[in-house]
Specification:
237 residues; globular; 11 strands
């Protein structure tokens, strides 16, 4: 019975994704695909080093959005609190601007993050709150219409996961808000995301994750609404 229930839940989730993506097309909301592969190594001193390679599609899956490589170092302070720093190299495919000669081009960005995350277990539920300070420098900013470079953001992410007994499937959901710290209007919300999905533990070292994500971004140059399907593969050394 349990296997049937999990299978039914999974197919219901896929039908929900299909329905949302179809609605997105009717409402001129974009549909995208985000894929990533993560390799991590946990050390005995509480440190964890991870590398993530991510590839995204936008424009109803017809256009490459970006490639990005992330190197993250985190430290488990105690059972409830983690802290970390990371660097991300981003190659964004820019649609360009008619005000200059570069109609389409690749734009390089350097991103640095500092974050702290608190966790709290309540039965089989695990709640977490992550606060991340993020700064992004755009190398080819002179070709774009961006008003802020580098941009400073505070990203607040609230997550919840549920542990199903004797089943290697873990449902999860989160909401995240992006707050611009150095914009013309202080503390303005630039983007928000909502997501729900499933994490499947293939083995002790490998897991697969898939989810639906809704994003609404208000950036003057790149802002858009999008329904996104995500896939992620994680491997622990």
């Amino acid at each position: 019975m349990m296997r049937i229930s999990i299978r039914h839940f999974y197919f219901t989730f896929l039908l929900l994704l299909t329905g949302l993506s179809g609605t997105a097309v009717g409402q001129t909301t974009d549909f995208g695909l985000w894929n990533d592969v993560e390799i991590s190594k946990k050390f005995n001193n509480g440190m964890t080093l991870s590398f993530v390679e991510e590839f995204r599609l936008r424009n109803e899956l017809r256009t490459v959005d970006k490639f990005q490589s992330d190197l993250d170092l985190s430290y488990k302070i105690n059972n409830f609190l983690n802290a970390g720093i990371s660097y991300t190299l981003i190659n964004y495919y820019h649609p360009g601007n008619k005000s200059h000669d570069y109609l389409n081009y690749w734009e390089t960005r350097h991103r640095f993050n500092i974050n702290a995350e608190g966790e709290y277990n309540l039965g089989r539920f695990k709640f977490s709150l992550r606060e991340r300070f993020q700064t992004t420098y755009r190398v080819l900013d002179s070709l774009s219409t961006a008003d802020i470079n580098p941009k400073l953001l505070l990203r607040s992410k609230l997550s919840v996961t549920y542990n199903i007994p004797k089943i290697p499937v873990e449902p999860f959901a989160f909401c995240e808000f992006f707050q611009v710290l150095n914009g013309p209007m202080k503390s303005q919300i630039e983007e928000y995301r909502f997501s729900a999905g499933l994490k499947y533990k293939i083995s002790k070292k490998m897991s697969l994750k898939t989810s639906y994500l809704y994003s609404d971004e208000f950036d003057d140059e790149e802002g858009q609404r999008a329904n996104v399907v995500t896939f992620g593969l994680s491997y622990k050394l």
